[in-house]
Amino acid sequence: MSETFSFGTWLALRRKALDLTQRALAAHTNCALATIKKIEQDERRPSRALAEALARVLHIPADSFTLFVACARGIRAAEALASVERVGAAARSESRAGPPVVNLPAQPTPFIGREAERTQIATYLEDPACRLLTLVGPGGIGKTRLAYQAAAAASTSDFRSGVYAVPLAGVTRADSLLPTIAECLNVTFQSGVDPKAQLLHFLRHKRLLLVLDNLEQLLDGVGLLADILATAPGVKILATSRERLNLSDEWLFPVGGLPFPTAADQADRAEYSAVDLFEGCARRALPNFRLEDTMTAVIRVCQLLEGMPLAIELAAGWVRQMSCEQIVAQIQRDVHFLSVGRRDVPERHRSIRALFDHSWHLLSTEEQAVMMKLAVFRGGFELAAAHAVAGATVMRLASLKDKSLVQGSLSERYTMHELIRQYAESRLQEAGQSAETQNRHLEYFTTWAETVDKQLHTGEQIHAARRMKAEYTNLQTALAWAFAGGDPHAGLHLSNVLWFYWFRWSGNWDEGFAWIERGLNQTTGITPARADAYANAGTLAAQRGDLRTAIAYTQQGFACAQELDLPHMVARYVMGMSFHIQEYPLVAAQFEEAIALLRQSDPRFLLSTALFLYGDRARVEGDLTRAQSLYDEGLRITRGQQDWELLIAIVGRQGRLAALKGEYQKARQFYLEGIDIARQMDSPVGLDEYLIHFGGFAIYQGEYESAERHLNEALALAEAYNNVGEKLHARFFMAELALHRHALSDAARLLAESFTMTLSDLEWQSKVANHEFNTERLIIAGKVAG
Question: CA 1: distance to chain centroid?
Fold first, then answer.
């Protein structure tokens, strides 16, 4: 076939080499006999679909498939087909036998989602370098259905000898793997001859795909797969396992849960196959089920189950007995209620408990001990934490990862699927080791938080804040255990360690205040920890806009600090109380005393804080020279410490002072520097303050569009973090902007909102720091009225 003049001639020669008649070729390609005759006589060209069908029946190699279709369609000259391999005896035998056999079990329900995974698996199956592809993942994640779906879609031109499923869920002995494969391939062994040699001989010249499902309990026998791959170059294996096979030829394909919405308002189901799966299963159980009536609860189910298909199916099966809201409550109370009584479901897939029991029994005693202790972590964990709390080593975690029970590596955080974590937690409780492990968890994260908190006041603070954010769920878990597990003093101590992160980095003022107040309520006496807690609670209460509570806690803490003779704590309380004292000389004297104490003690950030707060009061009183001196010293200390978070606060005050002194270019530079630092550090608190003050500055510079953009962003941040003070300030400046634009109705409305919020709390009216702001509001109100 090296010298051909037309595609029709080449096609006829190829057909005859395969011992196919024109009628047989027409039957195999599902077209009319007359069509084949006209193509071979070069009277017509096949369609693309027919050309692809011809390629499969004529056993065109994968690397020549595209070339064949192009020649058939007349895009390439037929002479190009001279490079296509000749047909061997095995191919002629297969062609006479008809289309390749596809022996896969029928699936009882429609396959949902995973388009990207199926596409990727198809790419692997077409890659000559990929001989063994293992789909790995925990039980119930959908490996079997995905493997069968991918195998059904595989090109039979690549697997001319067929596609065969080998279900292994019921096989428990490694020496049963070979006869099970042979049985599925319809191989009959002759007595007296080594069965393995017979199987390898049978496969030697085959081009087929073996789908070996559920291999995790047969790992001692997977050496057979290596022998098959070495002996039969035309065989590919698609395996599913909860654990990697650890063979040289193995390519891994991790399988995760189905996509699910992360928020209740993400109702576009086209992207979330977890929701589609729940709906389909629910309708089979309850034909009149309407997803629209219970979308929020269904989304919550999918979130709690992290998209695990089997768990979603089990949950949806309960819609006949309870509402979706009740299903959510049951899952949160005890995930083991997820079970089904269907007789056609394998025993280990009838409940979540049975599902994970199977994986548990495949673990060694040492792996079980580590696994159940890892359950105390929430939101993932690092190697150091796993070692300190659960005694885990790198090798042990790698082994658990290979078994699909944890995810991650040394270069990233380790995580566990929530259902696996809950199962392991139940094992920990059954072993009677829950309290001991929780105590180690609390001790570890208290020490960890103390170290990271110190870094929040250094040049490492951005990295430290990110670490704190990553471990925040673990920190919450440690706090909850301390207060519920009988050690409120430890809980109060950890709350004190975390207060600055709540205050300046996360904006979780409500939560932080609640934890500290819980610690104060559960402890008694006059102790340094309680003295510290009063100050922290007072600061967070002020940020929440609850000045009355802030003052009460500050006064209690001041008395406690004095009785304990804690100079730096006394100095901190003096700073906190200064804005509620009207007489400036008295406040100045107290600040001077506090600053003198703080110059002789650590931490240094308290001295910088005292300097800029004293500067604030001096500015409010019109003492701009002293304010400038205090701000400058605080700025020098803060830059030297590379405390960027505190620098945000001081640079902003420098900008405001420069604007008051008429140094507008200098003010702009300070404001822009502060905004840039705040954005780089992802600091919602600092950024909010800057956006407001720069917005006000832009108004007076006539830059109305810039002012509007910055003030709108500031108000959105203030609303998101419930920052009462900044909500007041943002509305005031927006009122001023409306006035400058002659939108008097908008200005009056915004001023009314700002005044109403102030009048609702007498403390906001009397706070000295607000006098400057209140005066400005009254002036603007007068202008609007005029």
Answer: 58
Q: How far apart are the first and last CA of the chain?
A: 100
Tell me the β-bridge partners of 211: 165, 238
Q: What mean pLDDT do residues 394-413 have?
A: 87
Side-by-side strand order, sheet with 102-103: 102-103, 162-167, 208-213, 236-241, 132-136, 250-254
Q: Report the C-alpha gap between 177 and 224 in whole angstroms.
A: 8
Which alpha helices (H) appear in 185-221, and where do they start and end? 195-203
- Cα–chain-centroid distance for residue 169? 32
Token pair for residue 311? Answer: 């768990």
User: In the predicted model, is pLDDT for residue 181 greater than 90?
Assistant: yes
Percent of the chain with pLDDT over 90: 33
Contacts of 70 (CB under 8 A, 6+ apart): 76, 80
CA pair distance 764, 769, nearest whole angstrom: 9
Mean pLDDT of the chain: 85
How do residues 135-152 score in pLDDT, each as one tens digit?
A: 999 888 999 999 999 998
| Inter-residue contact 620 to 587 (CB < 8 Å) | no
Q: Which helix (H) or strand (E) holds 239?
A: strand 236-241
Length of the chain: 786
DSSP conformation letters of 644-660: HHHHHHHHHHHHHHHHH
Tell me the residue type at 27.
Answer: A
DSSP 786: -
How far apart are the C-alpha atoms of 674 and 680, rounded to whole Å?
10
Q: Is 272 exposed, middle or buried (0-12, 13-18, 19+ CB in 10 A)?
A: buried
- What pLDDT, on a 0 to 100 scale, did the predictor assign at position 414? 93
Q: Which structure tokens are listed for 415? A: 């995580």
Q: Nearest CA to 25 among 57, 73, 61? A: 57
Q: Which residues contact 775 (CB under 8 A, 6 or more apart)?
A: none
- Model pLDDT, residue 776: 64
The answer to whether 687 and 678 are in contact (CB under 8 A) is: yes
Q: Three-state SS string across 393-453, please?
A: CHHHHHHHHHCCCCECCCCCCEECCHHHHHHHHHHHHHCCCHHHHHHHHHHHHHHHHHHHH
Element (H, E) at 240: strand 236-241
Pairing of strands 236-241, 250-254: unpaired
Q: Report the C-alpha gap between 144 and 142 in whole angstroms.
A: 6
Helix (H, G, I), strand (E, B) or coil at 8: helix
Q: What is the pLDDT of residues 371-387, one digit of tens each?
A: 999 999 998 999 999 99
Query: Nearest 5°: CA angle at 630, between 629 and 636?
Result: 90
